[in-house]
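Quick one, probably user error.
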């Protein structure tokens, strides 16, 4: 009789522990503080659309694989990016859509100027929106 009672109790404890462990998992993404200078942004679509953004100056680097099977940041071209001033506060932001990589934008949150991610052959760069 005792064994019959213990088996369901052990079964219940095992599932309760698993359920608690799942609810305590940390989030899979992070948000940089508002005054931080750099931020990493990754698209939900693919790891290759992972960027390091200089929120103060608007410079963007893309995560790339190296010849030694490592990873590195490769600086990207941002056409018509204004000069960075020493007094600039963080002002740039990258938006990525879960729909398509072509809906990835760099925006100057102070002026509203926006750049779109452009891929031309092997080159990926940021081009300004037409105004």
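Nope, works fine. Designed sequence:
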């Amino acid at each position: 009789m005792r064994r019959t009672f213990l088996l369901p109790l052990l079964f219940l404890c095992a599932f309760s522990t698993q359920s608690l462990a799942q609810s305590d998992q940390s989030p899979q993404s992070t948000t940089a503080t508002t005054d931080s200078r750099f931020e990493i942004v990754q698209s939900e679509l693919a790891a290759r659309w992972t960027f390091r953004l200089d929120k103060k100056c608007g410079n963007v680097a893309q995560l790339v694989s190296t010849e030694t099977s490592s990873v590195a940041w490769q600086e990207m071209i941002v056409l018509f990016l204004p000069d960075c001033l020493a007094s600039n506060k963080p002002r740039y932001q990258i938006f990525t859509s879960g729909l398509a990589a072509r809906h990835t934008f760099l925006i100057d949150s102070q002026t509203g100027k926006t750049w779109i991610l452009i891929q031309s052959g092997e080159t990926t760069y940021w081009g300004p929106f037409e105004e």
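Residues 2-23 form the longest helix (22 residues).
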